[in-house]
Amino acid sequence: MMQTWSQNLVALIQWFAPADFILTFDENCGPMQDIVQRDIKTGDVHGLVFPKRIIVTSNHQIYADWVYIWCIAYLGKAHGVLKILLKSSLKNLPVYGQSKKGDQSLWLVLFPEGTVVSPSTRKRSKDFAELNNMHDNRYTLLPRSTGLRLCTTTLADSIDYIYDFTIGYSGIKPNDIPEQVYTIQSVFFFNFYPKQVHVYVRRFKVDAIPTSDEADFNQWNLERWKEKDELMDHFYKHGVFPSNPVVASTEESRVVDVPIRLNSSIFDLARIWVFIVPYLLVLKKLLLSSSGTV
Known about the structure:
With about 290 residues, the protein is an alpha/beta fold. The protein has helices at about 1-15, 65-75, 95, 120-130, 145-155, 180, 185-190, 215-240, 265-290, and strands at about 20-25, 35-40, 45-50, 55-60, 80-85, 105-110, 160-170, 195-205, 255-260.
């Protein structure tokens, strides 16, 4: 059921807010031939390879971030095992941790900032940084470390890597508040959505992260978020995330352009329509309401 429901999310993007992923993989993610799956005839990307069990962290630009992350999981054939961890869900961590290596697949997604960037949250982040004599970020909020550290220590026996996504959307300017540009309503109901979703992917080995000491882990997390803010600065200046140029004919580019769309059979698509119909009814009602014809 979860797998079909999450395919529904991909279908919603494909049909109502069509966009391309521009995925940039940091060199610490490994060789591109081990990451990207291509069609033999066309060369088009049809899948991505991730470990069976991972923790995923991401900056939080807009409320639809989680939908796009689910679409990445779809490319990795992990859309049926993705779980977004909210503060109230921390009590479930022991359950996730019961599965050892080689058992149940898992994508555990966290937003360490806790919420999207807004004028009020940006001010709180700035005030906290000043109060504690810390570096403040411009495009991201200072991250919280408690939840991520708890996840990492609890799942250390069954997860080897944390994957970090830095997300940037086309059409957003440096001084914009992203959520004020692309709301859930504008993306899915009012035909105003990002045409490109840029994601910079990094990978960190869990056993190299200082999880045993709270202060050390907090500093490690802050440093990663400072790097993330620098990535966002590059994105807003150049419209893309940084990538090393391809210097050898045998070397594959670390930037991959992938349209967000289903790779499913006709039978799977037919099943998805069962889930899509309620959304269409809501869309019709909203459109009629906005035109004053209800």
